[in-house]
Amino acid sequence: MSPKILRPLITILSLVIFLWSAPNAPPQKPRIPPGGHLAVVADERLAALRRVPEPTGRLLRRLSRGRLVSIRGTSRSRDGLLFHFVVVTRRTSGWLQSEAVIASWRAGDDQRLLHLIEGDDDFDRVARARIFLDAFPRSPSRAQVLLLFGDAAEAAAKKLSPEASNRFKKSEIPENGAPEFSYYQNYSGLDRYNRQGVIFTFDRSAKQFHYDGAAWREILKRYPKSPEAVEARKRLEKPK
Length: 240
What we know:
Blueprint: H1 3-21, E1 37-41, E2 48-50, E3 59-62, E4 68-76, E5 82-89, E6 92-97, E7 101-102, H2 109-118, H3 122-135, H4 142-167, H5 180-185, H6 191-194, E8 200-203, E9 208-211, H7 214-222, H8 227-237
Antiparallel strand pairs: 1-4, 1-7, 2-3, 4-5, 5-6, 8-9
């Protein structure tokens, strides 16, 4: 098999393995749609699977972010929108607007996804950055996305801390029960971030969550001479 064919297959396989093994994955192995070119839903706002390649076409179902699809063909709507004919499962297929998905083998998709990441709120930024990091391991924008990922996680930590504090008032925690800090570390608001691979540490005295900094450390390890490394070092040296 030639290197030109092998490289995209390795990238796709890496993405599939991540979706299977990552904390946010369902307990069962994700179904890989048969045939075609694999892509992943990155913008769920546009992920309406339709019977015909028109924005007014009959809705078959909506696809969630992170869903794998197999692209079989393309067509333009009367308005000029590009649609992909995609297979979701052996029994489910339809037309999906092209901007809903990204693919490692399609030129420019890393930059398009980067634009989506920069315009999101904290959780969406984390989730889409996670897709980017696993779909585009060799993108020149990877260090930038790692920085965005870490900053979004730390911003989320600042919002989650008062939410958890309101949830676990000391007067409501049994005196002879579990330690107070363990209630915070088990706060359900952390769950969706944990499923994206985000780990939060907890300052017991200040009752404050912080991102553990894994993405920033990766920048220093893999891209030590990048502008992002300067910023990552600042984040890691900042007093908690």
